[in-house]
Amino acid sequence: MRKAALVWAVLLLALTISACGGKTQAVDVDQLAGELLEQVAFEDELTELDDSMVAALYGVENAQEQKVYLSSGATAEEVAVFRFATEEEAQAALAVLEQRLESRRTDFANYMPDEAARLDNAVLERSGCFVALCVSAGDTAKEIISSYLG
């Protein structure tokens, strides 16, 4: 009986650990966000948001780990990287971030059309339990995010 309980406990632990298995399990949120900040040519200075601001501006409250940087408002530039406990939570966050991009396109369309175009080219990807968003010019962000979330 003890052996069976031990086997079940080991199986449960293995399932819990592999819940977000696959290639992205080892993604370092800080490293991905840092690489985006260092290698992407941003026009504006990006400032890190605290958790309460992320919840208010993005509507994402259940991330296990997150790094979010936002421009001063002079541009639409931003970087957001999230890790969630489950793929379902990551998928839900992806939908919320898609809505955010659409809202920002509408906001910028009338008074800064160049920024609206930048939002059209935003990189938003999900892989497993991870979601990454980068609004910038050029293709560097896409290459970096793809190398992590492939």
Give a description of the structure.
- The chain has 150 residues and is α+β, with helices and mostly antiparallel strands.
- The protein has one domain.
- It has helices at 2-17, 29-39, 51-58, 87-111, 113-120, 140-149, and strands at 47-48, 65-70, 78-83, 123-127, 130-135.
- Strands 1-2-3-5-4 form a five-stranded antiparallel β-sheet, sandwiched between helices.
- Residues 1-18 have low confidence and may be disordered.
Identify the notable features of this structure and list them briefly:
single chain; 150 residues; alpha+beta; 6 helices
- Average predicted local confidence, pLDDT: 85
SS strand fraction: 15-25%
Rounded to the nearest angstrom, the distance between the terminal CA atoms is 44 Å
Computed CA radius of gyration, to the nearest angstrom = 18 Å
Per DSSP, the total helix count is 6
Shape: globular
Q: What share of the residues lie within helices?
A: 40-55%
Major sheet details: 5 strands, antiparallel
Low-confidence stretches: 1-18
Strand order of the largest sheet: 1-2-3-5-4
Total domain count: 1
Number of strands: 5
N-to-C order of helices and strands: HHEHEEHHEEH
Structural class: alpha+beta
